[in-house]
Amino acid sequence: MIMSQNSAATFYDAVESASETVLLGNEDVLERLSVALLTDGHVLLEGVPGVAKTTIANVFARATGLESNRIQMTPDILPADITGTTIYRMQTGEFERREGPVFSNLVIADEINRATPKTQSALLEAMQEGSVSLDGETLALPSPFMVVATQNPIEMEGTFELPEAQRDRFQQKLIVDLPTEDVEHALLTRFDDDPQLSPSEVEQSVSEAELEAARNAVADTYVADRVKQYIIDIVHATRADDEIEFGASPRASLALLRASKARAAIHDREYVIPDDIKALAPAVFRHRLLLSTDAELSGRSTDDVIDTLLESISPPENVQPEASTPTT
């Protein structure tokens, strides 16, 4: 079992090392993307223009060797532009199926909130079922399959807010922040030395077999009953908190469980600890919770409420398997 766990840690180390060719200061985002990939999750990246949201997704695809397609979402994009369509060929007298860009391992949906609700919903079946319906036929998507969508939080004109059902399909919502002064200085130096530096410079760092081994390692990660109860305590607290109008659903519980197993394996542990839960809870919950009017009027953010809630719940102890010794 230890070798299996090491495969997940080795997988992430290789992806991180390859990504450093282009990326600086986005280690947390890269880790969360790896967590999602290893657990069949999807990720929503939010940040102001120019913080490298699309670059992060492209670099991640290159480092992991995933076949990727980018869709620039606009109001005139149709569902068929995503899923594909069937066209009639007069020369042959036959219908030909043209698969859309959703038929890839990693779909990058840029500015997803600029697409109409009808087009946004075209991703629902793909994200939830791993398949799409095309002219009455259900077609399986490649495996693994992952959607990374981006959106800009400050430019709302001409956008369509993602409905709750769509947001809930994303395992995590990650905030891509502006870089620190030191990171931005290093970034300027790197691109001054190599102005043509781009995601295409990133080389594939893991094989398909290594990815599969890492996914199996995550599946084998141990979760104590105390940890599962800790997740339940947190989720039920979101449903009872006066600052939260609508709390987390059972899908959020499962997302937090699966994501925590991946984080444990990435950190070379064979079991989940409370710190895994606390580290991932904001990313798993922030797009699912709806704050009360009083909380919003008080200037409280969703992350503020989540932090307060986590501080109010005591984490469990002795969560490792009986046959294991604690890992430092």
UniProtKB/TrEMBL annotation:
All residue ranges annotated as the AAA+ ATPase domain in the record: 39-180
Coiled coil: none
CDD domains the record matches: AAA
InterPro entries: AAA+_ATPase (IPR003593), ATPase_AAA-3 (IPR011703), CbbQ/NirQ/NorQ/GpvN (IPR050764), ChlI/MoxR_AAA_lid (IPR041628), P-loop_NTPase (IPR027417)
One GO molecular-function entry: ATP binding
Protein name as annotated: Magnesium chelatase
Organism: Haloprofundus marisrubri
